[in-house]
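Q: I have 313 residues here and want to know how they pack in 3D. Can you give me a structure?
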Amino acid sequence: MSPAPTRRPVIALHGGCGVMSRSLLSEEEWADARADIRKALEAGYAILSEGGPAVAAVEACVMALEDSPHFNAGHGAALNAAGGHELDASIMDGATALAGAVAGARAVRNPVRLARRLMEQNIPMMLAGPAADEYAAAHGLETMPQSYFTTPRRAEALQAMRAHDRLGTFASESEKHGTVGAVALDCDGNLAAATSTGGFTNKAVGRVGDSAIIGAGTYARNGICAVSCTGQGEQFIRHVVGHEIAARVRYAGHSVGEAIRMILAETFTPQGIGGGVIAIDHAGTVTAEFNTEGMFRGWIDANGELFVATHKD
C-alpha cells in the first residue's frame, strides 16, 4: 500500500496593524521591515518544507520577528508607563490542543520560545512576571537586559504618548499598538499558531493583552483553522476572538474569511477599534483581514510563492 500523499505546507504572518501612515517610516525602514518579513517567512517555511511540524515553524517565524527592531515584540517592543518592557506571547499546536503562554516577562529574549517550552512541559502552561524569566534562565533560554529591547523609535513613541497624556489629546492606532504572529499548515495537515507582543506604548504596568491568552489572540485546531490576532487586546479578550472564529467556521459553516470579517464588523469597527487577523484554514487557504489602513503581512502559499504587503493597496 502506497503512503498517503503529503500536503503542501503553508505559512503566514502578521507584524501588526494600525493607521500606518507612509510617513511613519523612511523608505529604507519600510524596505527593511519587508525584508525582515521575508526572512521570518523563509525561516518558518524551511522547517515545513523539510517535513517539520507546524508548531516549530510558527515558533521560528515569530522568533525572527522578535529579533527584528521593526516590530513590537522582543527587540523593538513597546515601552510601558514606567519606561520598561513587559512581554507577552503564546503558542498553540492544533494537532494536540497543547498550548503555552507567557505574560509580563522582562528578560527572556524570545518570549515565544519560552511559550513553546511551557507548552511542551504542559503544567504549568502559562507563567507571568518574574517567574517567567526565572523559568527561562533555569531552562537555558537566552535572557537579555531591558536595554536590549529598547529601540530609538520605541523611546520616541513613549515620549509622544506621554505628550498626548499631558495635552489631553488622542494617539493614533499606529502610536499605540503592534503585535507579531504566525500561522502554519504542515505536510501532515497539522495547524499551529503563535503570537508575541510588547503590548501598547505607555500601557499600565502589569497589563496583559490578548497575545498571552489562548483563545483570544492565538488559537489553532486541526481540521478548522489557525489564528493570530493584532489590535486592541482588550477587545480580543472580551470576545474571545481566536476561538470565536474557529467556532463560527466549525458550527455555523462560515469560511474563515467570512468569520473574521463578521467579527470585525460586529465588535470592532462600530466602536472605532482597530483589529486584524491572519489565519489559515484546514485546506491551506490564507486569510488576512483588518479594518485599519494597513497591516504588515506576508505568506508563502501551497505553490511556494511568497507574498509581502503592508497597506491595503
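Q: Anything worth noting?
A: The chain has ten helices and twelve strands. The mean pLDDT is 94.
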